Amino acid sequence: xxxxxxxxxxxxxxxxxxxxxxxxxxxxxxxxxxxxxxxxxxxxxxxxxxxxxxxxxxxxxxxxxxxxxxxxxxxxxxxxxxxxxxxxxxxxxxxxxxxxxxxxxxxxxxxxxxxxxxxxxxxxxx
Length: 126
Hints:
Layout: H1 2-26, E1 28-38, H2 41-63, E2 68-72, E3 93-99, E4 104-109, E5 115-125
Antiparallel strand pairs: 1-5, 2-5, 3-4, 4-5
C-alpha cells in the first residue's frame, strides 16, 4: 500500500512540474519599442503610445496570452531614417519626457519630419 501511495505521489509531483512548466513557458515579458512622428511633440508622443499598445496586442496574440499588461520603460531612442540620423544623442532630446502609466516616451526634432518620439514599455502576460 505504501508503494502505491509513493508511486501516486511521484506521478502527481511529475504532473504538477510538467503542467507548471507549460504555463511558465507561455508566460513572460517582452520589451516594446515604438517610434512615431507628427507635427507636434504631443502628437508624436500619442502616436508612439498608440503604436506601443498595438505592438503589445500583437505580442499577446503571438504568444497566446489571455491578457497583457504594460509598464513604462525608458529605451534608447530609435530614429526612423538611420542613414540621415543614425543615433539620437542626449542633447537632442526634448524635455520633459512623456511618461504615462504604460509607456515612457523620449522625443526629439526630426530631420525629415517635425517631431519624432520613441515610446518604451515592458509587456507582460500569460
